[in-house]
Design a protein that fits this description.
There is one protein chain. Helices cover about 75% and strands about 0% of the residues. It is mostly helical. The protein is built from 8 helices and no strands. It has one domain. Helix 2 runs antiparallel to helix 3, helix 2 runs parallel beside helix 4 and helix 2 packs antiparallel against helix 8.
Length: about 180
């Protein structure tokens, strides 16, 4: 019951977002882009920086980084490295890669420890993760932009139709009681 209530709460918070649908969608896209990169301790800061650069919604940029969460860190890092190693022509089965996957597999993963291992491993391992992450981000960000643009436009049309019919909803009105 608590999970259902929490999902409804976040759904309503997203519906309450104000702004131009394009700005909100660009925010989601840059957030997904940053969230797809294997730079876990820095994803939120990177998403905010991108949102500022593209004049997008900072709130939706932070929401977009939620694509990266403890449930899919293993997937994100695994495919980032595999894709990057393939592009750079590196050995896909190194000791460092196995150590990172072990850290991320144990109990939801420890992002800070995984980042330390990658940074300690050196340039080629880091390059493989970042190259693969860029490829994943380049694939997921445009898709998330078009999907969220469609959804935010639908919400805007829904709000306008309710306003025209005089059916203001307490969720979206700014009137005080």
């Amino acid at each position: 019951m608590v999970l259902k209530r929490r999902i409804k709460y976040y759904y309503l918070k997203i519906l309450r977002l104000r702004g131009n649908p394009r700005d909100l969608a660009v925010g989601i896209a840059v957030g997904v882009f940053a969230g797809s990169m294997p730079i876990l301790p820095f994803q939120s800061a990177f998403a905010i920086a991108l949102a500022l650069a593209f004049r997008a919604s900072k709130i939706t940029a932070l929401l977009g980084t939620w694509i990266s969460n403890p449930l899919n860190w293993h997937f994100l890092y695994y495919y980032s490295y595999k894709i990057g190693a393939c592009i750079l022509g590196l050995n896909e089965k190194g000791k460092t890669f196995k150590a990172i996957m072990e850290v991320l597999s144990n109990g939801g993963g420890d992002a800070v420890r995984a980042a330390e291992i990658i940074l300690d491993a050196g340039g080629w391992i880091l390059a493989a993760f970042l190259t693969g992450g860029l490829v994943l981000a380049a694939v997921t960000a445009p898709f998330s932009y078009f999907l969220s643009l469609y959804l935010f436009r639908r919400v805007k049309m829904w709000r306008e139709s309710r306003k025209k019919r005089g059916m203001g909803c307490f969720l979206f009105s700014r009137r005080s009681v």
